[in-house]
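forwarding from the other thread:

> can someone predict this with 6-phosphogluconic acid?

sure thing
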Amino acid sequence: MKQTIGIAGLAVMGENLVLNMASKGYSVSVYNRTSSKTEKFVNGRGKNDKIHGFTEIKDFVDSLERPRRIMMMLKAGNPVDQFIEQLLPFLEAGDLIIDGGNSNYHDTNRRLAMLRERGLLYIGTGVSGGEEGALKGPSIMPGGSAEAWPLVKDIFTATSAQLEDGSSCCAWMGPEGAGHFVKMVHNGIEYGDMQLICEAYQFMKDVLGMDHSAIHDTFANWQQGDLNSYLIEITAEITSHKDEDGAPLLDKILDAAGQKGTGKWTVNAALDSGVPLSLISESVFARCLSSNTELRTLAADTFHIPTPAFDGNVQHMLDHLGTALYCAKIISYTQGFGLLQAASQEFNWGLDFASIARIWRGGCIIRSVFLDHIAEAYQGDKYPANMLLAPYFTDTLQKGHASLREVLATGVKAGIPLPCHSASLAYFDGLRTKRLPANLLQAQRDYFGAHMYERTDRPRGEWFHTNWTGTGGDTTSTAYSK
Ligand code: 6PG
């Protein structure tokens, strides 16, 4: 009797995904490089007649029904390439390898092309939701060999988070590395969401002088409204969590943020595609700045700039803060979906943005009620040129931008860093400005480098050069953009 799917890699995500699949009735073969881990699992948490452990790769592969489905839940990077190499001698044409880790989409493109040459199928899939998501239902974002989708559709659909309307948080994303690209953007958005929440927390603490209990109450209150999301929910819990001595644990946690790289990849992809992704970029840099605690301590001791006491109405300011956070979040998703739109066009992936918003509604780290509005904005064939131009978002920003300004003005005066909120407003104001100062920028480029400019009184695409000093020649530089 052969098993339905094989899972290689029994770290946190792998183990929990195996248990999840087995609980849905699928028989699973498991393999881990360190075989004692496999034995411990199948004799412990994984003791179940649906779960079968193997210590040799050949036996693991042989245990699977054909075409074989082998899902790797490994650390991204070299371990994935190495495991694929180890698998290859035992696979046959038509077999499918799935990478469920946080791999870079460039690697997924490369692996897919290499395996296609050998007649093998490949899927790179995002799996979001952390430990609990993997066990109870993550959001799953597969992409790669289109022929492979029917081979995993049922398993992935059954294993993913289920929404109240009966739909599941899994959908086919597209060819090549589309699945991992979408997961990467999910993580970039996650970085932005987290930093925005952290800025609101600092504003409450350092501008409004609120204590943990009042901060907790505010997040708990926001959780009842438009901001309802997993990240706000856990933030409310974190802000009320006490250490063993009864003091707030949050005060004892070092303010040095870690990161594993998916936020940086998202920013790199945006730079490559020439898409403004300023909010997520700021969230990555905010982590970088935070991690250098020694330097910040030195600077804090060097500059003596007092924080003026807040003398306004705290409740009014909290209302502004909630609205500002929501508006900034909308702008972050606008930029994130702008990147998805650009990638879809550039790589010809045919991404379905409404479907992406829907499968992020449950299971994943950025799950939130507000994603329904995004699904609505991208419903049908005609997308808005920019998410902010969809009626719901236009209306919300029209009403809410004043709160964003209020919070930023107050925060700036108080000397509180609000990089992501600031980036959101700068983008919004830039987007809605008919005439930006880029006319001057083009003139500067033409002045010092003969880079040429277009004119407002001539059609686009006609290029002009001015001999600004009277001493330059007629030779112009070539134009290229992005
Ligand atoms: C998820 C998360 C996960 C990510 C962690 C840590 O969707 O379940 O995005 O994939 O690895 O959140 O990321 P950082 O260490 O970069 O913060």
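Residues 5-176 form a domain with the Rossmann fold fold (CATH 3.40.50.720). thats all i got for now
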